[in-house]
Amino acid sequence: MRSLLLLGSALALASQGLAQEEGEPVSTVSCDPESKICYSGYKDPESEIFFGIALPKEPKDPYDAIIQITSPVRHYWVGFSWGGDMVWNPLTLAWRNGQTTTASARFAYGITLPQPYDQAEHFYMKGTKANDTHFTLTALCKGCAGWQNVNDERYFLPFNGSTRFAWAYGANAVEDPASNTSAFNVHEAYGKWIHNLDAARIDNFDEIVKANLLSDPAAPSTPAQVPTTIVTSVLATPTPSNKVAAAIPASCNGAGSPSFQGRLATGWKATKIVGGMTNPRSIEFDSAGNMLVVQSGKGISFHQMSAEGCVTSTKMLVSLNSLNHGIAFSADGKTLYASTMTQVYSWPYDAAAGTVGTRTTIITGMYQGGSHLTRTLAMHPTQPLLVVSHGSNSNIDQASGDARTARAIIKVFDLSKIPSGGYNYVSGGWNAGYGQRNDVGITFDNNNHLWGVENSGDDFRRTINGQSRDIHHNNPGEKIHYMGDVSLPNNAWYGYPTCFTVWQPSDFVDKTFKVGDWFVQAPNSTFNDDTCAQRATAPKLTLFPHSAPIDLKFDSGNKWMYITYHGSWNRSPTTGFKLVRVEFTKGADGILTPVAPLSSTDAAKDVFWNPDVTRCQGNGPSFSNGCFRPAGLQWDGQGRLYMTSDTSSNGEVWILGEG
Prior knowledge:
Number of domains: 2
Shape: globular
Number of strands: 50
CATH topology of the largest domain: Neuraminidase
CATH architecture of the largest domain: 6 Propeller
Strand content: 35-45%
Domain Pyrroloquinoline quinone-dependent pyranose dehydrogenase beta-propeller: 264-657
Protein name: Iron reductase domain protein
Distance between the termini: 33 Å
Largest sheet: 9 strands, mixed
InterPro entries: 6-blade_b-propeller_TolB-like, Beta-prop_PDH, Cellobiose_DH-like_cyt, Quinoprot_gluc/sorb_DH_b-prop
Radius of gyration: 25 Å
Oligomer: single chain
Signal peptide: 1-19
Mean pLDDT: 90
Number of helices: 3
Organism: Sporormia fimetaria CBS 119925
CATH class of the largest domain: Mainly Beta
Helix content: under 10%
């Protein structure tokens, strides 16, 4: 199940906005008698939120814009998307703070809490206020009308003709209303509309701005609780650590206290080694023992390590906000690979110096948008083969049942034969299986065979003879997939988007199932549960529904597979938010297999978990609402396991071990 779902949960609530996504502009001109600003404005009829935009008469990139947002106070926060999408464009957020309104510049690089955006600033203008019924933001925004898109190209808001904008609002209060960097929770609803920007261009733009800016904080009309200019704060680099003589250090200097308390299995130790990171995801260690971490929406950070496993120094190795999850090294450690939503890049890498050379694009053409935006990478241990996992573009992406769409698939690319301009993901490479809804975690075992963990579907119902029954709470199960030797094409189908596995058989009243059996949501004479058993490649193990497994690693002996459960959004109470492990053994054929049978419900053993998972919040999160959130895993050269927790802007890395 996809955790951190910021879009899908509101689809049912957003039909009024989506109706305006195509067609003629619905904005109209309205003038503010106090400020004399005339806006091209739009008021959503359902939410009753007004959005007004004013632009210079003859704008040239880069240019400033005036935005006005007025909302009923029943909406705790309101968001405006300058590019019409939740991800990969600047966002202006506004929320009530006493008798005034706070503005916040944000940018979402994936389906996660939008991070503070330091490329944009809001300057408050007259009309920014709040009372018992409404709050209003009026602000000049520098940096909102142009930005770097997902393909690392400059894009700016077209000022001739019309464009698509989008809105969202939240049903829960932000964490700190006085702070423009506050965490906040998932939106309750969102919508889109077509806006006329010709009507937004006004005469005397500079004079009107000057006359309305609240430049004097002491002036009566200036909001007293917030500064005139909002600039995103920068977190300090952790203080270098001192050596601690222990296999798992008791503490690491400069790491700070854990953001959230955890519980450990008997015999285990866990220590926070660094904090203050921005959505830390995947981890790699280079040939010199340095730790590299993908910070989604920021780039790749480089951390020198002590012998005890603590961080001694930190720097940004690659500053590139389109990177969001995937990272890998070539077998010789001299080439670094990382992925965006749409591309895979490579850099020459020097481990001793901790530097990269000139970036090269090696894979293009991956789907832009959709529900699953990460593209996980894994390098074959002995051959120049790069494996790239690509999720579906929605909960049920029907088209991906055809492998030629190159979604819900895992593909392999021979890096010794990269064509000029790089591979196209859709037409290049070969399959390592398809019909894997979203195998965010992929890894190799000691046989150099590939494994993956799948985030399965959400909001499921079982329909028999027109009668529909909700089964989503404890179905379908997540999966552990075995893909095998990726040096050979694997065109096996792993079931998605039609076939899913049972976790709680009692939810099905029309048929007797056991855990791990295949089922379809609406069986018919053409395609039913039995069809799945005949055509689909079964998983090796079924995991608890909605756990959202997003990384997995075998230990050195391949006795245990460790899996991070990123946590649920589509279940109440929540589940996941922990590190587990599954025991493996070798069969007579030398192939690894879980010790537990497919029908097991207790194969995954807890290692590191939150003490009260019901407090964990998967829809946002608002600083995770009291929980750490496991994401990436990697072993260092001394056999210690490292794990990221990607909560908000205070992400952490932990070191774990037994003994």
